Amino acid sequence: MLYWLTDLSDGGDIFNLFRYITFRAGGAFFTALLFGFLFGRPLIDLLRKRQRRGQPIREDGPESHLKTKAGTPTMGGVLILGALLVATLLWARLDTPFIWMALFVTAGFGLIGFADDYAKVSKQNHKGVPGRVRLAAGFAIAAIAGAWAMWFQPADLTGNLAVPFFKNVLLHLGLFFIPFAMLVIVGSANAVNLTDGLDGLAIMPVMIAASALGVIAYAVGNVKFADYLDVHYVPHTGELIVFVAGLVGGGLGFLWYNAPPAAVFMGDTGSLALGGALGAIAVATKHEIVLAIVGGLFVVEALSVIIQVAYFKRTGRRVFLMAPIHHHFEKKGWQEPQIVIRFWIISLILALIGMATLKLR
């Protein structure tokens, strides 16, 4: 919205600053961060009042959670989404199709998560909305996003899958790109959702992965950088760095209250929305495979659940003491802050490896 102030510029005044993506990204970051600090405590107080007993704690989970996390309100993802929405609408160019695609996916998955959180809190059990319903709604949103990306990407990239490390390799999927995009977005949303099990565990890796994808979006959306790095140029995706800046600012504002011991959980409202956002950015920038690297922690968390369930159904035994894998380390005696900080370190390393694919070609 503020971008339109450039119409008042003669090229040498303060309004000219709004032409620069980096300036507007900084504005989005601080707007979202301020939003989180201003509305975080009032939101937590409201959630405590409305939810009373807070998020239901699974009885088959780690025993310590029944004591340390009982009564903590959920749906804190509303704070992140509110900050992200305000910052993006205020600072991004609203004539950019991929900004609206990212907002659509984020808001859509946020609504799915909100419905699931509301069902859990109101019924005081951890089942929430049936899994099939959540998946069906998620796949519908992701299908629209996949078609959206195909419509606005260059003709030579439409329906193609870019392969990292190889600058000229494109796998032609045609219309099958839409089902592929659906798997990427829905898979990303649910992988982040599975990771959200300890105080601060999910939000920092999300911010790290989003930051890496933001750098990639800025590069592939700039014709000079794309040519220098030998990556596929996707017009208009550079604006996504403003969206990412809002996400990181809102995430930090939320982390202030989610740091151990958490005063609020993001819930499915936040985890599904943020995971969907990561998937949407990857699809828009043609870096779907790189998402599996920068978001490798989420991949491992999801795989640990898949392996555990499949092996148990086949043999009646477990591979891990408990899944997702962060609970396995809890069972082994690791303290919660140890797990969280070590997983943050792993996320940062994977993000740096993912960004390295921009140059290693």
Question: How would you portray this structure in words?
Answer:
The longest helix is centred in the first third of the chain and has 31 residues, at 21-51. Strands 1-2 form a two-stranded antiparallel ribbon. By secondary structure, the chain is mostly helical. The two termini are 37 Å apart. Helix 10 crosses helix 11 (288-294) and helix 11 (288-294) packs antiparallel against helix 14 (336-356). The protein has a domain at 96-242 and 254-356. 48% of the residues are buried. The chain has 14 helices and two strands.
Topology, element by element:
Layout: H1 21-51, H2 65-68, H3 77-91, H4 97-123, H5 131-152, E1 160-162, E2 170-172, H6 177-195, H7 203-220, H8 223-229, H9 240-258, H10 267-284, H11 288-294, H12 296-315, H13 325-331, H14 336-356
Antiparallel strand pairs: 1-2
Helix pairs in contact: 1-3, 1-9, 3-4, 3-9, 3-10, 4-5, 4-10, 5-6, 5-10, 6-10, 6-12, 7-9, 7-10, 7-14, 10-11, 11-12, 11-14
In short:
This protein is mostly helical. The protein has helices at 21-51, 65-68, 77-91, 97-123, 131-152, 177-195, 203-220, 223-229, 240-258, 267-284, 288-294, 296-315, 325-331, 336-356; strands at 160-162, 170-172. The chain has a domain at 96-242 and 254-356.
